[in-house]
Amino acid sequence: MATITKVSRKSGDAYKAVIRLRGSKSFSKTFKLRKHAKAWADRMERDVEASRAYGNAAARKMTLSELIRLYIHYNPNKDKSGISNLAWWKREYGEMKLAEIDRSVVRAALNSLKEEDATHGNGEGKRKSRGYKRSHSTVNRYKSALSSVFEYGREHYDLPENPCRQVKAFPESKGRVRFLSETERKALLKACRKSDWPRLYLMVLMAITTGARQGELLRLCWRDIRFKERRAYVEHTKNGEPRVLPLVEGVITELKTLPRPINHNELIFPSERAPGRPFEFRKHWIEARERAKLENFRFHDLRHTCASYLAQNGATLLEIADVLGHKQLEVTKRYAHLCVDHKQSLIDEVMGRMI
Predict the structure, then answer these.
(1) What was the pLDDT predicted at 21?
(2) Which helix (H) or strand (E) holds 82?
(3) Does 23 have pLDDT greater than 60?
(4) Among 99, 3, 88, 115, which residue's Cα sits nearest to residue 53?
């Protein structure tokens, strides 16, 4: 990693210490005495992070805030949650030089995130506590967002390393699978019909039958609906890739009962006070959930309900992943236990012929 060579000069002999790092340009410093060159080289070797920063001009000059801005400009379709996570890094550590951000900084930041209450915007530029701690999976998403920024910096600005790679992710639970029974589903849809917000029934029906995320549904515009094809086109998703939602006839019927605006760029679920923003339906959702007497049930569990119904009716994990828009099949494996009957039929049909 470090070499020391004797250099002849007019003023006398000197000793040049050269540090070579994988994935980065080498750098050096010359001393009059060999022992001083060796001491400098040993010190730099003991602190790899410092030596890498020393040898890279971009790391010395650029701040994290600047790199995040460049990364988002390079990835204009980055998912909303990823942008939100990067906003936190920018707010808390944006003024730090990239050379100052090592694994100890990243680790301390993640521990801080884990101990703090989860927050959300109040619509006035301020953050409000949700009343509970962030989960390990949520904190890991913050780490993943920052890691993507540093990988971008390595590729485009010759940054020597990604400090996030040196920090272990927090262990994540397999995730719960809470889905509606047939009785619960009927009770919930009936309660939604009685809601003060007339579009709650459509919102919940679409969540159950498409497996779409809440944010994806709230961002749907009339231009995204193809009535003849019975499809909805989601441009921005959590994983950053667009996808298509097949719509059942019941959803199409509900959509046709709604007044269609002249401007097809308007939201399907718009706020009454600010039509350009989605409707805040949390209060109406809680009321419907209580009326249906559902316990331990979140809106996101409607997505689990869709996946569980598919699994119980013979869909493969690959098909479920495609419907839900999962990039990694590992996430979909939580529904594997519901595919047992389908696997039994498959084994009987294929392997049974061999006996």
Answers:
(1) 63
(2) helix 80-93
(3) no
(4) 99
Other beta carbons within 10 angstroms of residue 97's beta carbon come to: 14
Q: How confident is the model at residue 127 (pLDDT cuts 50, 70, 90)?
A: low
Tokens at residue 61, please?
A: 């000059």
3-class DSSP assignment, residue 232: strand
d(CA 204, CA 303): 10
| Between residues 239 and 89, the one the model is more confident about | 89
Q: Per-residue pLDDT tens for 315-342?
A: 888 888 888 888 777 677 777 777 776 6
Confidence of residue 122 (pLDDT cuts 50, 70, 90): very low
Instruction: Return d(Cα 124, Cα 34) in angstroms, integer.
Output: 62
> 């003060």: which residue's tokens?
196
Give the span between the Cα atoms of 206 and 217, in whole angstroms: 8
**Residue 217: band (very low, low, confident or very high) from pLDDT cuts 50, 70, 90:** very high
Q: Do 170 and 110 meet the contact criterion of CB atoms below 8 Å apart?
A: yes
- What does the alpha-carbon distance between residue 6 and residue 8 come to, in Å, rounded to a whole number? 7
Beta-sheet strands, E only, within the chain: 2-9, 12-19, 27-31, 117-121, 127-133, 225-226, 231-234, 243-246
Would you list the DSSP string of 15-45? EEEEE--TTS--EEEEESSHHHHHHHHHHHH
Nearest alpha carbon to residue 107 among 168, 159, 171: 168
pLDDT tens, 299-311?
A: 999 999 998 899 8
CA distances from 315 to 3, 122, 178, 309, 325 (A): 61, 40, 18, 9, 15
Nearest Cα residue to 122 out of 300, 280, 284, 237: 280
Task: Tell me the average pLDDT across 131-149.
Answer: 86
Do 177 and 324 meet the contact criterion of CB atoms below 8 Å apart?
Answer: no
CB crowding 229-254: b at 16 or more within 10 Å, else e:
eeebebeebbeeeebebebeeebeeb
What is the spatial distance between Cα 172 and Cα 174, in angstroms, rounded to a whole number? 6
